[in-house]
Amino acid sequence: MEADHQKKIFQAMKKSDFYPHPVETVMGAIEQRETHISKVFLTGSYVYKIKKAVGLEFLDFTTLEKRQYYCDQELLLNRRLAHNIYLDVVPITFRNGCYNLGGSGDPVEYAVKMRQLPDDESMKYMLRNSTIGKKEIEELSYALTEFYEKTPPNGQINTFGSWETIQANCQENFKTTKKFAQNIIDKKKFQMVIAATESFLHKRKKLFQHRIDQGKIRDCHGDLKTEHVYYTKDGVQIIDCIEFNKDFRYQDIACDLAFLLMGFDYEGFSRTGHDLLSAYVKRTNDQNVFILLDFYKCYRAVVRCKVNCIRISEGFTDKDEEIALLEETEKYLDLAYRYALQFTRPTIWIVCGISASGKSTISRELGKLFDIKVINSDVIRKKIFGIKTQETSDLPFEKGIYSKGASSLTYGQLLLLAQEEIEKGNSVIIDATFSTRHWRIEAIRMAEDMDVNIVFVECLLSDELTKKRLVERENVVSVSDARVHHFEDLKRLFEPLESLPNEMHIRLNTIKPLNECMQQILSHKERGGNNFHK
């Protein structure tokens, strides 16, 4: 009954004389847009959005009262990120056998009235026409950061970011989508996504609690897409947040951002997504977002697969629309598969450089952030030769436990210990100078043989500061025996890393604050593609 009633309203809204203001038509007709839950009429100056009288697993628009309530919610919630866009909830009345927009009579439907934004101001349009630059990215970063800061966390919202909730959501997505794995989506790729997700959840349970403790679970947008972002004379406007189900809106900030960044990847603008993420992290110092991003991108891609599969299976689409949906679904599954490879494939991190360049500080911070093992060459060297870790000695250069033979034993053991971690499915950090090409080549060969990623983080510091740090070591307990009188020999024999490809090599000036160093490393990870994964 409700659906039949709405069909008549939709027919009325196709006519120009339905509206109490001038309208612009396309080929003599009101422009319309439609989703499975709403019908939208574009009149030139204003947009009117009607919620369809449908009841689905995740929403209930089946009664007029409910549709009015969610229209009010749409107005309220979207005004957080869109200013002077969401204008009113307008009743549609029925009188004397006619439907009217507003006016007297009993309300039979409600419409959200919005100011119409030009398509060429949308981020999606601007990306495709190469008019998005650094300025626009900074503006969006600022708008999102300010928005998240104004939506404080609370106990109720926090539960939506818990490990148990995320696991349940993933399981629900897989359960619903699995029945389409025979005839709509590739079964092997889908099974790989399931296995990778379960592995990540098993290993990183503490990370989800850490995000709650950091206050990163918020009342977010829930449906961030490039077509929902506009650049107007009044600034950035972000429309169409989720109003119909708080479960889709209460989430980790990382999950909210992941939807938008997945959209960049889907459209072929991954570098722009990386720039936005870097701008966000620079403003917030939210470094954990890098660790979770591929996981949540994968989660979001699976959700899109699920929704498309349901639409296809319902059989309400014509042949052309079905073909387009199948192609889109395949692309989303490919993205999910790629993300799954990225967040499950281990990485050997080689944190290298001349002694006193900051290797151990960087290694410790990386180890803490990723919750992975750090293998320190000085510790291993002394252990091999039965020397206590804190026992220091001032040996001549390349003599005793620092001879070429002793160094070969040490580096062989470092790689063996790293291999043991990789075989457990873990990433690992090796903290050592790696001053010779020979041992770098051996590390790369091991990574290739084990089919894992390898990244060299080269710590760099001026000669003056390096010498100063070496002098300072003489007055403190240190596991390293390198001293300032070794400096010239250490520098002379350090073979440059120039031959390493860019995706495998990070040049890190450790004079910068630690948080900036970490952001550089993590930012490099994010833009490194399939050559660089956690």
Structure description:
By secondary structure, the chain is α/β, with parallel strands linked by helices. It has three domains: 115 residues; 222 residues, Aminoglycoside 3'-phosphotransferase, Chain: A, domain 2; 185 residues, Rossmann fold. The chain is built from 19 helices and 17 strands. The strands form five sheets. A six-stranded antiparallel sheet has the order 1-2-3-8-6-7, sandwiched between helices. Strands 14-15-13-16-17 form a five-stranded parallel sheet, with helices on both faces. A two-stranded antiparallel ribbon has the order 4-5. A hairpin with a 3-residue loop joins β1 and β2. α6 packs antiparallel against α7, α7 packs parallel to α12 and α15 packs parallel to α16. The relative contact order is 0.08.
What key phrases describe this protein's structure?
single chain, 534 residues, alpha/beta, Aminoglycoside 3'-phosphotransferase, Chain: A, domain 2, Rossmann fold, 3 domains, six-stranded antiparallel beta sheet, five-stranded parallel beta sheet, 19 helices, elongated, disordered C terminus
